Amino acid sequence: MDIYVDSANINEIRQAKELGLADGVTTNPTLVAKENGEFTDILKDICKEVSGPVHAEVLSLDFEGIVSEGKELAKIADNIVIKIPMIEEGLKAVRVLRSEGIDTNVTLIFSASQAILAAKAGATYVCPFLGRLDDISSDGLELLGVIRSILVNNPDLETKIIAASIRTPNHVVELSTMGVDILTVPAKVLKQMGKHPLTDIGIEQFAKDAEKFK
Ligand code: E4P
User: Fold this and answer.
1) What angle do CA 37, 6, 36 make, to 5 degrees?
2) Based on the structure, what is the number of domains in the chain?
3) Cβ(145) to ligand 1 under 6 A?
4) 127 lines ligand 1 (CB under 6 A)
5) Residues 52, 4: contact at Cβ < 8 Å?
6) Where do the DSSP E strands lie in 86-206?
7) Which residues of the chain are modeled with pLDDT < 50?
8) Ligand 1 within 6 A of 131 CB?
């Protein structure tokens, strides 16, 4: 199981890397827009920091635009993966980029049928968004389970799942139990994962009792 950092912030990425939690990085236009600097420069810096896949999203929505932007982004570094939104023009672009050896991630997946289309187009990764489904009272984890079953039962589809829009440590636990290939987790949730009030109480108690030996 790989854990990626869902961030375009170099400090968050470095901190996660120190804990062995940066097997890769996912970005999207919203995450990159929070940072200072040019779109491409921000991605270049991330690629220098992380040796695993760095997912960079195209901004175009038409076939030609997606293909040419994808090819340009792919020049940034060998570890760039091109993130493409789940639209028909995007799926056509996935096929072309794949034929040129460029890895793709079809993002904004909210149904199992969309995942099938992306996998058939030749996407290296599909990216279902759990949290955004939960936000509208749908069951993100259930969708992940269905997509996982489809890919496990059809090994000719060589697509990997990246579970995205993760909002809680419990999402991480449930997805790990399920055996999802990759989880992309925001820095805030990575920090929350290590927290437990009983750990804090235990540390405080041990520190107090250790005073006797000082
Ligand atoms: C990652 O690839 C996605 O863009 C990201 O996880 C979306 O998360 P959000 O729903 O919290 O914006």
Assistant:
1) 10
2) 1
3) no
4) yes
5) yes
6) 104-109, 125-128, 160-163, 182-185
7) none
8) yes
Task: Output the domain CATH number for residue 45.
Answer: 3.20.20.70
Give the other-Cβ count within 10 Å of 203's Cβ. Answer: 10
Distance 131 CA to ligand 1 centre (A): 8
Distance (Å, whole) CA 128 – CA 7? 17
User: Degrees (nearest 5) of the Cα angle 153, 158, 163?
Assistant: 80
* Model confidence pLDDT, tens digit, residues 60-71: 999 999 999 999
**What distances in angstroms separate CA 111 from CA 180, 187, 202, one per listed residue?**
16, 26, 44
Residue where the block lists tokens 């896949």 = 53
Kindly give the distance from the C-alpha atom of residue 210 to the centroid of ligand 1, in angstroms, as a whole number. Answer: 44
Query: Using CA atoms, how far apart are residues 202 and 104, in angstroms rounded to an integer?
Result: 46
Residues catalogued as catalytic: 83
Residue 167 CA, closest ligand 1 atom number? 11
CB of 165 shorter than 6 A to ligand 1: yes
Owning domain of residue 129:
2-213
Task: State both tokens at 116.
Answer: 């099938």
**pLDDT tens digits for 109-153?**
999 999 999 999 999 999 999 999 999 999 999 999 999 999 999
Q: Give the pair of three-digit tokens for residue 83.
A: 């993130």
Whole-number Å distance, alpha carbon 204 to ligand 1 midpoint, is 36
